[in-house]
Design a protein that fits this description.
Chain lengths: 376, 327
C-alpha cells in the first residue's frame, strides 16, 4: 500500500507559475486521474513526482519517505510518458525487458512478466521489431508495457492515450484498469479528456492553474461537484452554466426561478447572500425534451444544432437568449430537427449554484416555491 | 504598373494579375512564361546553375585538361600534350610521397585531437545549460573558428617567437630555457598542430552540440527513470540519434584538414627543412611560385581524388549503419 503526498509544492518556469502551493494526498491502491485543461499543471506535477524536474519548494512523500531530493532512478516509480520514448536500438522485447534487467530481475521472471503484458496489450507479434517499424499506437502500447512492468508500487501515466484512435483508447483504458487491479498499485494518470477521466478514474483530481480545485471519488465528483471548474471540466458534453441572481431565497435564471437550498459545504464558503450574482450549473442529461412533470420546471426552446453520436444525440436549444445543451438517448421518442420548437423540462434539484468569485458551490436548487417559467 | 485590375486576379496567378493580359507585347509574353509551371523552376535555378558552371565545372575541366599537358609559365614554351607524364612523375617523386604521408599524419592527428576535445567540450556545455555565463563562454570558444587562418598564423608566430613571444616569456619566467617552437624540427609540426586544434576544436564542439540537440529529450528521461548506465545511454540513445551529425562534422574536418595550407604558410612556410610541409603547400608552391601549371594540376587532381575517397568512405560507413538499423 503506497500512498503519495504532495505538500506545498511550487514550481515555476521563468517566472510563470506552473504549480502554485499545491497540496494533495493520493489514496493508496487507487487509480487517480488528474484532470484539467492544458497548462493546468498535471504534467508538471507528474514530472516532479517522477523526478524529472526539481521542485522550487514543497515536499513529495511516497510511502512515508521524503523523495523530494531523490534522483528519478532512486524513486522506484513506473513511468509512461506522453511521448513514446522507446530505445531505438533495441527490439520491442528488449525495450520492455531491459529496464527490468537493470533492476536485477532474473531472466525467467522477466520472460514471464513480458509474456503477461504482451497478452494484455496484444503486442506479441511486435516483439522482434524495432521502434521505427511500429505505428504510433503500437509504440504507445510498448511504452505502456515497459512502464508498467517496472518493479514499483506507483505508476505515473502522463496522458498515455493521447493521439491514439478511439477503439484502441477504449481497449487500453480497460486494459490499464485491469492491470492496475492486478498489480494492486497506485496509478496517477493525467488527461485533459473528460470522457477518459470518467471512464478510468476511481478518484479524480481536478486541476486548474497549478492548483487542485477538487479531489473526490469519481461518482461524487460528478454528481456533487463542489467547484465550478469540476462541473465545467468533468463531463461530456459540457455542463450548462447559466447566469443567475439570488432574490429572497429564490434563484432567478433566464430559464426559470426556483428555490435555493443553501449548503455551504466548504468551511470557508458562505450561503449566497440576497441579491448576489451566481452561476447555475446544469448537467446536459438533467435537461429533458419532455413536457413538465411534477416537481419540474419547463419551457419552450428552438433546436439550433443536433450532433448525432450514434447511440445518443447532443441537442443544442436556444431559449431566452442562451444555449442549453442536452443529451438524448436515440430511440427514445422523436428525434428533434433543426429549427423545431420543442418543450423541455428540468428538475431544479439538479441545478448546482456556484459563487462566481470563489467558484465554490454554495447551494443547489429545489422545487419548492418555484414559479412558472416566463419567456422572453 | 497599370491600374487595370479587372477580371479575377486570383484565378490567373499573381504575376498575371500584376500584368494584365490583353497587350501581347514582349513583357506580357515574358510574364506568361513565368506563370508556366514547367518553365518557372528552370528560371529560378538558372542563376545558380550558371554560377556553378562558370566557377566550378569549367575550371575543373580546365584543370583536368592542364594536368595532361607540359605547361610552365616560366619556360616560355607553349603547352604540350604529354598524356600521363605529369601523373607518373608525381607518383615517382619521393618528396611528394613524403609530403603526402606527412599530410596523412597531420589529418589523422588533427581530426582525432579536435574530435576528442570538441566532443568533450560539447558534452560539458550540453550538461551545463543552466550555468550562468554559458552563452558568453560559448561565444568566446567559437572565436578562433571565425578568424582567418592567415591572421591566426601570424598571431601564433608572434606568440611562439623565441625572443619576444609571450609563450617564451612565460617559460623563462618559470625558470626554463626558451624554446624556438617553430624553428626546430622536433617541435615545429606539433606547434602548428596545436594552433590548428585551437582553431578547429570549436567546430567539432558545435557539431557535437548540434548532434546532442537532436537527441529526443523523452528518451533521455526514460533512461534516467530506468537508471540506464551512462555508457548505455551513450550507445543506445545519444550515438543513435547524434552520430550522423557528428560524422558529418568529422568528414568536413577531414577534408578541410587535408587542404591545410594557409596556416602552415604563415607560420613556418613548411620548414624547418620540410617538417611542416603539407601537400597542399607543395601544390601552392608549384603552381603559384614555380608556375608549373601542368604538374600542379595533376597533383590537384590526385588530391581531389583522395578527398573524394575520404568522402565515399564516410558516406559508405554512415549508410551501412543505417541499413543495419533498418534490418
Amino acid at each position: 500500500m503506497t500512498s503519495v503526498a504532495f505538500s506545498g509544492l511550487t514550481k515555476s518556469y521563468r517566472g510563470t507559475p506552473a504549480l502554485d502551493d499545491l497540496t494533495l494526498t493520493v489514496r493508496a491502491d487507487s487509480l487517480t486521474v488528474l484532470c484539467g485543461p492544458p497548462q493546468s499543471g498535471k504534467s508538471v506535477l507528474l514530472r516532479l513526482l517522477v523526478g524529472l524536474e526539481k521542485t522550487d519548494s514543497g515536499q513529495i512523500v511516497v510511502d512515508g519517505q521524503d523523495v523530494t531530493k531523490l534522483p528519478p532512478g532512486g524513486r522506484r516509480i513506473g513511468y509512461v510518458p506522453q511521448s513514446f520514448a522507446l530505445y531505438p536500438h533495441l527490439t520491442v522485447y528488449e525495450n520492455i525487458a531491459y529496464p527490468m534487467r537493470l533492476q536485477g530481475a532474473r531472466n525467467a521472471d522477466i520472460a514471464a512478466k513480458v509474456e503477461r503484458a504482451v497478452q494484455l496489450l496484444s503486442i506479441g507479434h511486435l516483439l522482434k521489431k524495432r521502434p521505427d517499424q511500429l505505428s504510433g499506437g503500437e509504440k504507445q502500447r510498448v511504452a505502456i508495457a515497459r512502464g508498467l512492468l517496472k518493479d514499483a508500487q506507483i505508476f505515473v501515466l502522463d496522458d498515455p492515450l493521447v493521439g491514439l484512435d478511439y477503439k484502441l483508447r477504449e481497449r487500453l483504458m480497460d486494459d490499464l484498469r485491469t492491470m492496475r487491479r492486478e498489480l494492486g498499485a497506485t496509478f496517477l494518470y493525467a488527461t485533459s479528456d473528460a470522457l477518459e477521466a470518467l471512464t478510468m478514474a476511481e478518484d479524480i483530481v481536478v486541476m486548474d492553474r497549478g492548483r487542485v480545485v477538487e479531489h473526490a471519488p469519481v461518482d461524487r465528483l460528478y454528481h456533487e461537484p463542489q467547484h465550478l471548474r469540476s462541473m465545467e471540466l468533468v463531463g461530456f458534453p459540457g455542463s450548462n452554466l447559466l447566469p443567475g441572481r439570488i432574490d429572497a431565497g429564490i434563484c432567478v435564471t433566464p430559464i426559470g426561478r426556483f428555490a435555493v437550498t443553501p449548503e455551504a459545504t466548504a468551511p470557508d464558503a458562505t450561503a449566497p447572500a440576497n441579491g448576489a450574482e451566481v452561476i447555475v450549473g446544469l448537467r446536459p442529461e438533467a435537461v429533458e425534451l419532455q413536457p413538465a412533470g411534477t416537481g419540474q420546471l419547463s419551457g419552450q426552446a428552438s433546436v439550433s444544432l443536433v450532433e448525432d453520436l450514434g447511440g445518443e444525440q447532443v441537442v443544442y436549444l436556444e431559449t431566452g437568449g442562451l444555449t442549453l445543451v442536452t443529451c438524448l438517448s436515440v430511440g427514445r421518442g422523436e428525434t428533434p430537427a433543426y429549427g423545431q420548437t420543442v418543450a423541455y423540462r428540468f428538475d431544479p434539484a439538479a441545478a448546482v449554484i456556484f459563487d462566481p468569485a470563489s467558484s465554490r458551490r454554495v447551494g443547489c436548487g429545489c422545487f419548492e416555491g418555484q414559479e412558472k417559467i416566463r419567456h422572453a | 504598373m497599370q491600374s487595370n485590375r479587372s477580371g479575377s486576379p486570383a484565378s490567373r496567378g499573381l504575376l498575371a494579375a500584376m500584368h494584365p493580359t490583353g497587350q501581347a507585347g514582349l513583357t506580357a509574353r515574358f510574364f506568361a512564361l513565368l506563370n508556366d509551371r514547367r518553365f518557372l523552376p528552370l528560371m529560378l535555378l538558372t542563376p545558380v546553375l550558371v554560377f556553378f558552371i562558370i566557377w566550378n565545372t569549367i575550371p575543373l575541366l580546365w584543370l583536368l585538361g592542364l594536368s595532361f599537358q607540359k605547361y610552365s609559365l616560366t619556360s616560355g614554351d607553349d603547352p604540350a600534350f604529354t598524356g600521363f607524364a605529369n601523373y607518373l612523375e608525381i607518383l615517382g617523386n619521393s618528396s611528394v610521397w613524403q609530403d603526402l604521408s606527412r599530410t596523412f599524419v597531420w589529418v589523422f592527428l588533427s581530426v582525432v585531437l579536435q574530435t576528442g576535445l570538441g566532443v568533450a567540450l560539447g558534452f560539458l556545455f550540453w550538461g551545463s545549460h543552466k550555468l550562468p555565463g554559458r552563452r558568453i563562454a560559448l561565444t568566446l570558444l567559437f572565436a578562433p573558428m571565425v578568424l582567418t587562418p592567415v591572421a591566426t598564423g601570424t598571431f601564433f608566430r608572434l606568440i611562439y617567437d623565441p625572443t619576444f613571444g609571450i609563450l617564451n616569456q612565460v617559460i623563462r619566467a618559470i625558470g626554463l630555457p626558451s624554446v624556438d617552437f617553430l624553428g626546430q624540427s622536433s617541435t615545429a609540426f606539433w606547434a602548428v598542430l596545436a594552433v590548428d586544434t585551437w582553431m578547429w576544436t570549436p567546430f567539432l564542439m558545435l557539431m557535437t552540440l548540434a548532434a546532442l540537440g537532436s537527441v529526443p529529450k523523452a528518451e533521455l528521461e526514460a533512461a534516467e527513470v530506468d537508471q540506464l548506465p551512462w555508457h548505455q545511454r551513450l550507445r543506445l540513445i545519444i550515438l543513435h540519434h547524434g552520430k550522423f551529425i557528428l560524422m558529418l562534422g568529422v568528414l568536413l574536418r577531414t577534408i578541410d584538414s587535408f587542404k591545410t595550407m594557409d596556416l602552415v604558410l604563415q607560420m613556418t612556410k613548411g620548414g624547418p627543412g620540410s617538417t611542416t610541409n603539407l601537400v597542399a603547400l607543395t601544390l601552392y608552391r608549384q603552381s603559384f611560385e614555380s608556375f608549373n601549371l601542368g604538374w600542379s594540376s595533376a597533383l590537384a587532381v590526385i588530391l581531389l581524388l583522395i578527398s573524394i575517397a575520404f568522402t565515399s568512405i564516410f558516406i559508405f560507413v554512415l549508410n551501412l549503419k543505417r541499413r543495419g538499423d533498418a534490418a
